[in-house]
Amino acid sequence: MVWSMEIQRAPVLLTSDPQLRDAVLAAAAAAGTTAMTVSDPEQIPHLQTLDQPLVIGIDRVRHIAHHTLPPSSLTCLVGTEADRDDLCAWSAPLGASVVVLPDGVRWLTSLLAGDRAEGAGRVIGVIGGHGGAGASTLAVSLAQCADGSAALVDLDERGGGLDLLLGAEREQGWRWPDLASSSGYIDDLAEFLPSARGVPVLSMARAEDGPGDPSPDAVAAVLRSLAREHALVIVDLGRSLSAGARQGLRHCHARIVVTGGCVRQVAATERLIAEVSDRAGVVVRRAAEGASAQAVADTLGLPLWGEIPDESRLVAATERGEPLGDITRRWQQSCGRVLAQVTA
Hints:
Elements: H1 5-8, E1 12-14, H2 18-30, E2 36-38, E3 54-57, H3 61-64, E4 75-80, H4 84-94, E5 97-101, H5 105-112, E6 122-128, H6 135-145, E7 150-154, H7 162-165, E8 195-196, E9 199-202, H8 216-229, E10 232-236, H9 243-251, E11 254-259, H10 263-276, E12 280-285, H11 293-300, E13 304-308, H12 312-319, H13 329-343
Parallel strand pairs: 1-2, 1-3, 3-4, 4-5, 6-10, 6-11, 7-9, 7-10, 11-12, 12-13
Antiparallel strand pairs: 8-9
């Protein structure tokens, strides 16, 4: 098969099932595009760096399982209601979203429409390898360092709300309970969110405000919307990795693992690595005791993306739910270097 420039920009559908093929092609037509259909992964050149949506039929999933796939925000598995269990079982190993047809056709249409067009923002996840690592503090600080080009998304169901760290808990605007049933395409989301210091934030609910964990469909819709509007979307994933957070994890172009350098902290972080190691790097919080940052990175088998100072005042403020206020110069410079490394 000769892949012309037009075909190279089209969504790719991998299936031999005529019913799935017809359903996906109909969704592509509704999106104003076409999909190139193949039945063998070997027919797709440069699969690992594919820069357009890849839709994998459940009938061909075993044929592609040993391949390295493109970023998960471009990849989805499709099947019918009868295939739901198999789709969910393959979703995590492949790092792909799931679309159950016909109910998920709206979301599929938005994917095929090219919502992640050229120039769309990058999604960066932040996760603490252990309690008190300072992941939420780092996530807020990275968003603030982006000079107005970033949005902040809270997926830590046990964190109490990132709006507290920004001092925006009294600001009017949407929180996750307002978007609990969202899916597909959400337009101009940022203008409805509370903002502090130029950073729009979608915060988790507190117990009295409504349900905690947003649905995977809502997370996908929100991240795609914010990535269209911002150069960066910083996501605080939370250590519990709820269903919504796992969806967020799949959409991340980069995953920052934050850890201290003492033996117990590194050991705790090692247990997390298996779930997040793809497209991940480590940021080490410096302390008087503990291994060097490079030694920690080598132990974890991750690239070192930076060091941050052990600013106990900032971490303590985070634990108390206090706004960060003015960030120290040393902390701000360290966060700026981390951001430059991750987005390079």
